[in-house]
């Protein structure tokens, strides 16, 4: 069974040493995880959906759907401003988002919803700064942004 993106990030979040987390992110690198991280931290990307979680049927963990987000990652383009779906009917977009959430693992769905509404990952030890150090090529495409004191301070506390 392939580990899901949310499962990978949760596992990496539990790693004690900062450099060990960076090494784990580099080892676990995938296009799917890179897309999720880019959508989370790239301020040029905005969601074309209303705030909040829509009503959707959560999948049971036993369904073993951890691999689905990897194969469905392209569909995220429907829900963000850089995906060439700007003219899509908002109701159709929201309906497709519900279908998307219902097709993926429950932990991955929670991750997507958290990123959509909070613009950060739901893991205390995985921050923008950590990804800047782990994946500098991706981070170099993000607009320069002053690091939030919260992220910098959290990173210092969790080292």
Write a brief structural summary.
The protein is mostly helical and about 160 residues long. The protein contains nine helices and no strands. The protein is about 50% helix and about 0% strand.
What would you say this structure looks like, in words?
- This protein is 52% helix and 0% strand.
- The protein is mainly α.
- It has one domain.
- The longest helix has 14 residues.
For this entry, give a set of tags.
single chain; 159 residues; 52% helix
Instruction: Let me know the number of strands.
Output: 0
> How large is the share of residues in beta strands?
under 5%
Count of alpha and pi helical runs: 9
Radius of gyration: 16 Å
Q: Give the overall shape, derived from the CA principal axes.
A: globular
Low-confidence sequence ranges: none
Order of helices and strands: HHHHHHHHH
Overall mean pLDDT stands at: 90
Query: SS-based structural class?
Result: mainly alpha
Portion of residues within helices:
40-55%
Question: In total, how many domains does the architecture comprise?
Answer: 1
Give the biggest beta sheet: none
What is the straight-line distance between the termini? 31 Å
What's the structural blueprint in terms of helices and strands?
Elements: H1 5-13, H2 18-27, H3 31-41, H4 68-72, H5 90-103, H6 106-118, H7 128-134, H8 136-139, H9 149-157
Helix pairs in contact: 2-7
